[in-house]
Design goal:
This protein folds into two domains: 21-32 and 274-372, Aspartate Aminotransferase, domain 1 (Alpha-Beta Complex); 48-270, Aspartate Aminotransferase, domain 2. Strand 5 (156-160), helix 7 (173-185) and strand 6 (189-193) form a beta-alpha-beta unit. The strands form three sheets. Strands 2-8-7-6-5-3-4 form a seven-stranded mixed beta sheet, sandwiched between helices. Strands 9-10-12 form a three-stranded antiparallel beta sheet, with helices on one face. The chain has a two-stranded parallel sheet with strand order 1-11. The protein is 43% helix and 15% strand. It is an alpha/beta fold and 373 residues long. It has 14 helices and twelve strands. The structure holds pyridoxal-5'-phosphate (PLP). Pyridoxal-5'-phosphate binds next to helix 3.
Length: 373
Amino acid sequence: MNIDKTVDKGATGGVFSPTAIVLRGDGEPLDNAAYIEKLSSLSRRSPIAQDNYSLGGSVAELEESMARMLGKESAVFMPTGTLANHIAVRKLCQGYSRVIVQEQGHLYRDSGDTIQQLSGINLVPLGVGSPCFTYREVQRAIEDSLSGRVPTQIGALVIESPVRRCHGQIMPFKEMQRITQLCRENSIGTHLDGARLFMMSAASGINPEEYSSLFDTVYVSMWKYFGSPFGAILAGTNECCENLYKQRRMFGGGLPSASMAAALALEGSKSFQKQFDDAMKRGVELLSRLSEIPEVQWEPYPNGSNIFPVSFSRKVDINALSGALEKRGIFINHETDGINRIHVTVNVTLLRKSVDQILHDFSKALEESVASS
Ligand SMILES: Cc1ncc(COP(=O)(O)O)c(C=O)c1O
């Protein structure tokens, strides 16, 4: 079987030593052995409460904890974020057949038209080529939809933020407030694809609960950075979440023994925010000090989160740089966009070594790769 090289490797996709600094992906990269190790250490400390087809046990504990963290009445465990988004949209549309999404978003670009194919709901993509759509674009789309030969109500609007395809750029909070308010005035349900919501919060200083309060429903990934091998949480009101597990099962997502994944996510979610805040501070310090090297420039993206472009004023062989860094236990994303730069993703692996040490290793690797280019 061919493996699609474009897939988001996220928390998985490689075997790394526990001291490796992996400046790609949002979380600590874990292989099967690491998951097993974490799971057995967890169950030695306290038994993992068994679920029944994703109902009860540690799945229910995770649901309650995430609902609290997101300031929502209720939350439901989903096997994937793809299904969490799908079920949220179906629920919010209440029979209406149109949903506004970002043209660069996961739902539109990376879900194989699941919503159109399986639920007969059409996606209306806005904000072509840019991380986000604007208030004005949404206003126009609502008006256009209602003024067609067959006036058609928009059922729901989804905002993905940070936007994975746009180097983690986020929609500014004020714009989210205005757009979700416009939706409320027009009886349009709102959903946040907050796969990386906790990253957005660390970058903006606005806590997850504040973001979540703007939306009817919110999805957060459990595997990208909470340490679970898979899973997602979909949160909303009691009324919205009641019986959603039946839809989960209808789509083939009522996993038996989901409690192992849920227990890992619950554990990871407790310590994540503090650790990630520390990692972001360390990342910014590292990048600022890196740019003291004359040929290195660093500038954050406008409305960026945890992904930073680092460019070089002299020609650097990025593959050679990547190889020289790997020898020193530092892993970067060596795919380039044809420009003489790399993208550094900040995650908790940055906490494994001091800034001085990483800086020293980076400078040496850079010297080698400039010399070899
Ligand atoms: C923004 C966003 N939404 C949804 C998903 C889907 O999550 P899952 O892979 O758990 O289905 C992803 C996964 O890459 C994502 O990046």
